[in-house]
Every structure is written in structure tokens, then in C-alpha cells.
Amino acid sequence: MNTTPDFSKGWRVLRTHAAAQLPPDFADRVLRLMRTRPFSVRDAADRFLVAACTAAACILFVVLVHSHNTQKINQVALANWRQISDQADSFASIP
Amino acid sequence: MDITNSTALADLVREAQQGRDAAQRALVARYQQRMAGFAYAITGRSDTVEDLAQIIFIKMFRALGRLDDPERFEAWLFRLARNSCIDHLRREKWRRFFTPIEDEHETIAETNTPVDSAELDAIRHALQQLKPKDRVLIALAQEGRSQNEMAEITHTSVSAIKARLHRAREQLRKIYEHDA
Fold this sequence. Notes:
The complex is a heterodimer. By secondary structure, chain A is mostly helical. Chain A is built from three helices and no strands.
């Protein structure tokens, strides 16, 4: 119904090629794999791990940026205070 | 197992849902070529076909128990296949983003199969020129999915599917005819 005649031959070739990529015992492999590995649990664990790592990386990034900015602000503030202190000292030394 | 109609297929699906080994094997054998073709049409890479087909079937078995209407198995399977292929492309995109380009070419040499390689190259090249979502539509159409089913699978309206499919087919036809 939906097959466009212009490239139907190409599509057949594509399917044949793709099917040839599967081993002859493909169905058995799938069933074996399904039984030997608890995929649902593993996938859930994998997803949780990725989510946890992403969250940890984000938090670490925020903390680093925040501490960097705080340090910068503190340095500027300290420099200003030092300047005020120096000025105060110089005023105090005037007889 | 010879399956001639949708009722027989639904029975097979029910048996597979009950965990019957022969039915599960028959289900994979029945759809493995179509799933391989579908995955290849979307990814364009031979070396991913087996892995993707495996993923699709394993996901299928994991979710099969939740399929309420076995009569709608095929549409359900293609939705699963579509999602798996799109996920794969997304992961590949991120992998390429984070993986430095190496001297060695990452594509594994194509397996020699008894097919017309010029024809294969032409259709593969033409498909790769389309957006992944358009490739999905073309592949679904080639697999005989109705426009209603395509709309359901891709979570869009039927009218949007009609327009997009028409555009994608035209684009594919132009590139394919130019290449072929």
C-alpha cells in the first residue's frame, strides 16, 4: 500500500543486505541473552548510575563556580579594606 | 510455524506472553529480517544491525507482558523498534560529540552480501540525506504501517504524517533517482 514503486527494488536490496548481517542462530542468541542477563534490573541500575553521576557532576560544577566567585569577591573586598586601612594609617600618622 | 493470518499471530503472541520457548523463538524468527531492515534503513550502518535487532527483541520480550491487545502486536513492535533506533542515533550523536576524531576510520567494512551493491549504495545514500525522523516514516511506510499507526507510533497527527511522508518520499525519490 505504501510502497513507492520508484525505489522498491532498492528497498528489497537493503532488506536482503540487512538480513544478511544477522547470524543464522540469531533467535537462539536473543533468547539466550534474555535469560542470562537480567536486563530490566541492569538497565534500571545503569540509568540510575548515569543520573546519579550527572547530578553529582552538576553539583560539583555549581560548588566550584560558587567558590571561585566567592573567592574573587573576597579578594576584591579584602583589597578594598586593605586600601582603607592603609589610608586610615596614613591619616593617623599625620601629626 | 506457519502463520497465515493475524489471529494466528495474536495466538503466537499470547503463547510468547506465557513464556513458551517455541513461540518466543518463532516470534523472533518471523520478525528478525524486518527489524534488521528497519534498523539498517534508519542507522545506515551494517555493524549496528545485529546489536540493534537484539536490543529491539530483548525490549520486546521485557515489555510483552504489558501488551494488552495482541492483535496490535505489529504496530506495537514497530513503535518499540522506532524508539530503539532513535535512542541509538541520539547516543551515537553524544558519543561522537565526546569522542575525539581518530586517524582510523570507525566504520567497519561492509559485509559482502549477494546484493546489488550499486543499488544498495544508492538507497542507503538517499536515506542518509533525510532527517532521522523522516527516515523512520519512510521505513514505517515500507513496512506497511498505515498512516494512523504512524501517527500513533510517532505521537503526531495524521495530517502531519501525510504532509511529512509526502515531502520525505519526494526528497528520497529525487536523490535516489539522481544516484541510481
